[in-house]
Amino acid sequence: MAKKKSKIENESLDVFLTRIHGEGIIATADKALPPRKRDVLNTPLSLDIALSGGIPDGTICLITGKPKSGKTTLCLELLRNAQILNRPTFYINIEKRCTPSLLSTIQGLDPSKLQVIPHQIDKPLTAEDYLNIIERIAKTQKKAVVVIDSIAALSTMTEQEEQIGSNKDMAGPAKLLSAFFRRAQQVVDSNDVILIFISQMMTSREPRGPKWMEKGGIAIQYACSVWLKVTWIQQWERNAETNAPDGHDMHITVQSSALGRPLLPCILPLRYGVGIDVVKDIVMTAENLGLIEKAGAWYSIPMFAGDGDPPKFQGLARLSNFLKDNPDKLKRLETEVRDIVLPKETDNAKD
């Protein structure tokens, strides 16, 4: 005679999961994945367009590129934008690249509101220390924006205790990062934190494929929702007075975006001693959309015409100076560009 099954053996999957893990463990997709509005951290205008709106909360972001291409400067611009929104900002200064002189170049960035780690300690921090600190920030500081500069400088405890060259475990930092992302992903999402990792490039030994590859392993490429790669830079023409260029253009490819399609290009103007030239970026984008007209060396802005002729400026420098002196008009021009190019819902929030 067959044995009767116990009540536990006969219970449904829903009842079983609820009994073991508690209420809310399982639901249908329409209830488990409801539309969720998220705030979006804006980037410079042309990059916002390439990203289809910016960087949403709960995002892990990766910025890669060759040396001196402008990765750190771009990250400081993002921290400045976060401070405008009164968000907690942190800079994990592993490479000691963040200096007072560099911070002073970013207009509007408040050093008194930027937390820098480490400050003054006798013992150098290991990769394990840094990752534990980052995880703690993500758990306790809601809506924080954290820049980690950089993955390539992470040194494990084993590496620091041994002689230089004696550590054979070259994949140590990559293994730690893989474990970190397995633990931190849900915390970053639930607390609306944005983690921005900077990674260096190294030459690839493979005879086929790309000549350059990112340091730090592949785990972060799986974990990140936003991946920006500075593919190359183009120096500006030399200044006649200094006989040196005043900046360069950062040619960026959006490898992945949390809000839109991937592989869109972007060019950001970086002016030495100033940071991202936001005015030039807006002007170039507006000109491409026909909001600024150019005839030879003369520029005009029809939307500012009013009842008379539109204002005209000889040369890009005079137009830029006019917009700098009239921030209300600069903001109006930027808003017009965003209204044309970006979906309405991504200006401040994303479902």
UniProtKB/TrEMBL annotation:
Q: Which GO terms describe its molecular function?
A: ATP binding; single-stranded DNA binding
Tell me yes or no: is Iron among this UniProt entry's keywords. no
Keywords in UniProt for this one?
Answer: ATP-binding, DNA recombination, DNA-binding, Nucleotide-binding
Q: Which InterPro entries match?
A: AAA+_ATPase (IPR003593), DNA_recomb/repair_RecA (IPR013765), P-loop_NTPase (IPR027417), RecA-like_C (IPR049261), RecA-like_N (IPR049428), RecA_C_sf (IPR023400)
- GO annotation, biological process: DNA recombination; DNA repair
Gene3D superfamilies (UniProt xref): P-loop containing nucleotide triphosphate hydrolases, RecA protein, C-terminal domain
Question: Pfam families this protein is in?
Answer: RecA_C (PF21096), RecA_N (PF00154)
Q: In what residue span(s) does the AAA+ ATPase domain sit?
A: 57-217
Report the sequence similarity comment from the record: Belongs to the RecA family.
In Swiss-Prot or TrEMBL terms, this protein is called: AAA+ ATPase domain-containing protein
